[in-house]
Every structure is written in C-alpha cells, then in structure tokens.
C-alpha cells in the first residue's frame, strides 16, 4: 500500500471517528425526558417523586402510594401491570418493595415469590420489552428505630437480586446513591436531590 492509499485510509478512519464522536455528544446532550421517552417506571410513593419534583413526565411514571407486589390482586398493582401492557414500552423499570416489607412482616421469601409472579406476567405479555428492577432503598436509622422491620431491607434486596438473575432481568442497586441529607423527615422518602441521581443511574444501567 503506497502513501496515497495510507493517507486515504487514515482520512476515512478520522471521518468515522469524528462521526462517532458527534453521535456520542448528541446522545449525552439529550434531556432526561428524551432519554426516557419510550420508558415506563412503575412503583410506589417513592417513585411518585419522579414527576412530583418535575424530573420526569407523569406519562412515563405509574406510581401510587402504598403499592405493593405482595397482594397481586390489589387494584393498584393490577392497574400498574395493565398500564405497562397497554403502553408496551421499550424499557420498563420496576421500583417496588418498601411497602412489602411490612406487608410481609419481614418475610423476604414471600416478597420474592410475589415479585416473581409480577415479573413473569410482564415478561410473558411484553416479550420485546427490556425489564429492569430497582432495589429497595435503605431506610434511615431514625425510621428503623420506630419501624424495626425496615432493618430487613438488605435481606430483601439480596433475595431480589437473586430472583432477577434467575429471571434474566437486570437488577439496579441504587443503595450507594442515598445520602443522609436526601432523606425526608420520615426517613423513608427522598428529597428532590436524590431523584436526579436516580434517573441518571437508571439511564446508565439501561444504556439510554
């Protein structure tokens, strides 16, 4: 190969690299709403903060106070599953568990069994949707002192992570995102500062 050919090849490589760089910059500059445009997040009152604090559009979030997977016949979880099936999102994030800790009286095995039913129902109905499962957030020590069952969060997450591996869905561990100053007064819910970290972490995990 002569110098002319080498020069042409190098220019072509440089052009391809430049095009790739431009694409990456464009992807990085997309807004959170754009990244989550084809996504749906299901969850409880903690998840409600995503739209209550203006982080995501409410159209991309289906969340209700007190929602749990343990009672799969309850109106709330049934409506959430129905919403996912109707919307058929490219990516589906699940964020349940805090209410289940008390509903299950600290029984992590019962929780995982119930969550398994939800995941399998969604997988069967939405075969082309990528499913991601968020961990249960740790409660503050102040909350654990008044509601001791919340000390079981690590045990619940450990079993949930194993379930996700078995079901071949991605488990997203947000534990390290939580800082003491993010807790609301009840030691369970989160302040607005947490939610920007959370959506970035979900986007990274899902490659959005």
Please describe what this structure looks like.
The chain is an alpha/beta fold and 208 residues long. The protein folds into two domains: 1-30; 34-206, Rossmann fold, CATH 3.40.50.1110. Helices cover 53% and strands 10% of the residues. The chain is built from nine helices and five strands. A five-stranded parallel β-sheet has the order 2-1-3-4-5, with helices on both faces. Helix 3 links the parallel strand 1 and strand 2. The protein is globular and about 75 Å long.
Pick out its properties.
208 residues; alpha/beta; Rossmann fold; 2 domains; 9 helices; 53% helix; SGNH_hydro; GDSL-like protein; Ester_Hydrolysis_Enzymes; SGNH_hydro_sf
Secondary structure elements and pairings:
Elements: H1 3-28, H2 32-35, E1 39-43, H3 45-52, E2 61-63, H4 75-87, E3 91-95, H5 98-103, H6 108-125, E4 130-134, H7 141-146, H8 153-167, E5 170-172, H9 192-206
Parallel strand pairs: 1-2, 1-3, 3-4, 4-5
């Amino acid at each position: 190969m002569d110098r002319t050919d080498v020069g042409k090849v190098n220019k072509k490589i440089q052009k391809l690299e430049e095009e790739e760089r431009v694409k990456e910059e464009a992807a990085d500059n997309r807004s959170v709403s754009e990244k989550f445009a084809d996504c749906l997040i299901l969850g409880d009152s903690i998840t409600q903060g995503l739209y209550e604090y203006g982080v995501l559009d409410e159209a991309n979030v289906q969340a209700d106070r007190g929602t749990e997977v343990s009672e799969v016949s309850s109106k709330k979880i049934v409506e959430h599953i129905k919403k996912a099936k109707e919307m058929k999102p490219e990516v589906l994030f699940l964020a349940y568990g805090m209410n289940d800790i008390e509903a299950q009286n600290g029984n992590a095995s019962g929780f995982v069994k119930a969550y398994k039913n939800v995941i399998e129902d969604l997988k069967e109905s939405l075969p082309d949707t990528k499913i991601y499962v968020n961990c249960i957030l740790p409660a503050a020590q102040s909350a654990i002192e008044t509601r001791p069952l919340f000390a079981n969060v690590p045990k619940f997450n450990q079993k949930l992570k194993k379930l996700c591996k078995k079901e071949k869905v991605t488990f997203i561990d947000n534990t390290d995102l939580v800082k003491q100053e993010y807790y609301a007064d009840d030691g369970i819910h989160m302040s607005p500062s947490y939610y920007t970290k959370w959506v970035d972490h979900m986007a990274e995990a899902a490659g959005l």
